[in-house]
Amino acid sequence: AQSVTQLDSQVPVFEEAPVELRCNYSSSVSVYLFWYVQYPNQGLQLLLKYLSGSTLVKGINGFEAEFNKSQTSFHLRKPSVHISDTAEYFCAVNSPRRYSTLTFGKGTMLLVSP
Amino acid sequence: EPEVTQTPSHQVTQMGQEVILRCVPISNHLYFYWYRQILGQKVEFLVSFYNNEISEKSEIFDDQFSVERPDGSNFTLKIRSTKLEDSAMYFCASSEPGANTEAFFGQGTRLTVV
Predict the structure, then answer these.
(1) Which one, A11, A76, B72, B80, has the greatest CB density within 10 A?
(2) What are the pLDDT digits (tens) for B56-112?
(3) Is B91 in Cβ contact with A32 (below 8 Å)?
(4) Cα torsion for B77, B54, A107, B100, to the nearest 10°?
């Protein structure tokens, strides 16, 4: 079985500050890792994904994430946030054997203020 | 840009009534999914569908749920006799085959059972 833990339900931050959204997972098999973003009244949009290779993954809108196998983490980072980054962020995993059947975390609400 | 569309965006129904949630996946995708998110909880996998049959379903997807692809474009989720606890945001998604492919999500249908 797989599970995803997002340690922070809400992260408030000021505009232009750096941010890190934490994600830890557990799985008995190798996994693929994803970060999705949900803007208000919209669907889930893929930010980035880790499949294999380089552990540092760059995504859209200036976000990046680093896969750490020993710590079973996949934290999302951005060096300087904008007001428009205010949204809910979801970490998710799936097994290579289960195509896109994703297991999600509870989500972290990123609140960017001026 | 191709997108997954869901209708309606919000549905209110009385307990015990049947409800059908509709989705139009991206046209060249072959895998289709339903997920749900109860307010304040995780996004949870319900069911995946491929080649006109269910590929995988979670324990949430009991006999009161069914899915169908009635024509070449629509993908529906039916809840036969709604309960209060079925109130949630329901997301449809579609993808090309393979675990490393991106699942594209719709905007969701908020189902409220009263």
Answers:
(1) A76
(2) 899 999 999 999 998 878 999 999 999 999 999 999 999 987 666 788 999 999 999
(3) no
(4) -130
